[in-house]
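Two records follow; treat each independently.
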Amino acid sequence: MQTGRVTVGSRLPRVGTRADLMNALEDMIVPRKNEDGGRPPRGTPYGLKTYVLESDRDFPRRFESGCMQCEVEDTGLDAVKILRARRGGAATEFFLDVEDGRFPLLHTNGRSEDTDGIVGEMAGDDCHTLDNIWLHSAMMKRLARMPGNSSGGNGAAAGYQDQGAADAAARGVARITRGSGADPRGFVQDYVHSTGRFAVMRGESVREHLRLVDMCRKEYAGTVAAVEKRRIGVGKRDGKMLVEGGQFDFQFARNIEDLGAFIDWMFSSTAPFMMWGVKFAIEDDYFGVIAADLHAGARMHFDIAPDLIRVYLYKRGCGNTVLRLLTNLQMHYDAGTTCRQIG
């Protein structure tokens, strides 16, 4: 079995135990020496990063997406694999942890520019049923308040228009700290992105980093399960067939001015919403949309007015879709967007 220190650009070791994985991640949490012997300075995008994904089926062993090719190799652990991605001629490796099959993890110390692009392409290709997780502003705030966590402030994601301090949590990036003390091995501060990217910025505690990731994953899984309990369908109770489920009401702090253009943008089959739909007029400034989510391929229905979007998710739909909608409406339209059924 291959062993040894993980350096920037090196091949990942084929770990045989969870302890081996922890040792490998310890090597990745701070910038280590390059293969040429140089040490990247603090602040470079080479530190440990963990991406949380959402998957509707088993992680594929091999797939292609655009200009990227990926293959998954076994290690000595059933739940831990190595994902090798080739994109633009360069290869980047990730530890792939599939212990939670619905929400797999990717660990890497590759350059952020490369790893963000790879994960984004994986999540953006609807053929593979992979998606990001989507952390809306209230969920980011809850994560920062969980036991042992503290908020280190907020920052704007690239390309996001500044809307003032009151809207900081909706900008897509929060700094969250776990642990304490002068010894960097006793704490960690992560930049947490709304797409489920946890990047270590300060501190060297792998254990606290993984605890933060696991807290988020459990909170998110519970929210997705609650969303899916509201899916519309037919059930049987006391011998009677009944319609079950309910809608999701998205409300804005400011009204939509051009409803037709807004709907065309939202259902254009492209990022960030990844939905396709056909609109029809119900009355003035009130439309219905029959739509499909491109991640799961499931049918949805929307009622859309200038101040409200009402969403109906059907039984085969994925709860992740509703959280993607809420997070991206906050990010790209109105930071004050809320949904009372999600909180």
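The next record belongs to a different protein.
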Amino acid sequence: MKIVMTLYRLGAAGVLLTLGVLGEEPLAGSLRRDTSNWLGLAILFGFAGLAGLFLLCVRWEWLRNDSKTLMFFSHGAALLSILWLILWCFDWLALMMGMGDKAEMFIKHTAYLHLFGVGFSMAGYATGWMSAHWGERSARFCMTVGWAVSYMAWFNLLLQPALRWLWAPAIGGLLVAGSAFGMTRFLKRDFEAATPRA
């Protein structure tokens, strides 16, 4: 369990490091030239930073003790992460429209990727509600948040490979998703062991 939690913490720290992209070119130069860009970039990248902060605060004891408060917060974070990822899809669409003759082909090819990315996030969210215990639900909701941030980072790296800070959330989000799934295995085993048999 210690290995899973260590991987989870490393992943959450990677998600938090998304904020580093705001100090990196070309975004930093864009913000210096036009300060009105701050609001849009704060929403697009700032949410990932807040998600990383939330993920870092999650404790194993809260999951194991079926914390109702954690379940509500993780549910809210998962739901917001899906809506945030859909917002990113619209932003990517706007970026691709500026590609001229290649825009239509690029949009068609990336639509399948977005179906996978957003669909997988929604599936993680749905499986959270299928879990019997709040601790399991919370872990699956955290898994959803990790995947959403990771997908955002990977796709942005595809479009803007110069944003090197995005490697941290790209890998970190995957670590969060994988280790949160591992936590559900441990929680399920603990809950089954604690349930008296007839």
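Discussion point: The chain has a mean pLDDT of 87. How would you locate this feature using only the token line?
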